Amino acid sequence: MNFPQTMLKRKLLMTCLTGMITLPLSVTPVAAITQNDISSVSGLNSTSFEPPPRKDAPRSGTAGGGSRNDSLFCGSQTRTKNLTALSPGKHIGLSHDGHPVLFVYLPKTNAQMAELSIFDANMNGIYQTNISVANSKGLIAIKLPSAPSLVKNQPYYWSFALACNPVDRTEDLVVGGWIEYRQLSQNLQNQLAKATSIERVSIYARNGYWYDAVATMIELQQKEPQNSHLARSWTELLTSVGLNLNVVATAY
After folding, report:
1. Conformation bin of residue 25: beta by default, left when phi > 0, alpha when psi is -120 to 50
2. Are 233 and 196 in contact (CB under 8 A)?
3. Which of 23, 32, 93, 187, by CA, is between 20 and 30 Å from 101?
4. Whole-prediction pTM value?
5. Per-residue model confidence as pLDDT tens digits over 176-201
6. Are 100 and 39 contacting, i.e. CB atoms less than 8 angstroms apart?
7. d(CA 89, CA 157)
8. Of 85, 106, 99, 97, whose CA–CA distance to 212 is shortest?
9. What is the maximum alpha-carbon separation in the chain?
């Protein structure tokens, strides 16, 4: 399961040299809860992520990369905010969309460019694109309208590489996670149709649909940024996969 970061960086360099498609990608800042919104999550179980049953991350790849604490070497102004992928750690997170939205926390940085790459289960590069991150920071949404649709029921690893030194790409800061496109069962569709917005987050999270749970929760917080119940549920969702609240919860 452990795949050295240096090897992943070499993989990224190799895919650049083999002519993978490079297209512009939209990066959109999104709202996040503030430190004051964070409270005890004891007793809260509704939005905890539960990995898909009998679906482990491929051994041929790398464990999910949640955050890198060496952001300071890429121009970050604080030691407490690290480059972070909103991924479910070593687990595969499901999405019911073949063109999912991926979320990354980007600390203040001098870097001008990042690289989004997608690998198959054997870590063969299948897609890559450059992203301008000039003057960008905080929680960002990465949309993939130009990328080929993920194949159903196949695991993929996505990585976000921040180019700290464009001359030497081995100095990239790299985070990422596992994802799989899986259509919703009729039973889940029926549950979602009857559910409230926050109940949909719970349904997605309990059934392994990490990326849909995150996207839905962020959408709700944008509409109701002062809602303390949403803040607690967001906290619970993040902590259920071991994400660092000091990073993501203080995105702004």
Report:
1. beta
2. no
3. 187
4. 0.80
5. 999 999 999 999 999 999 998 889 99
6. no
7. 11
8. 97
9. 53
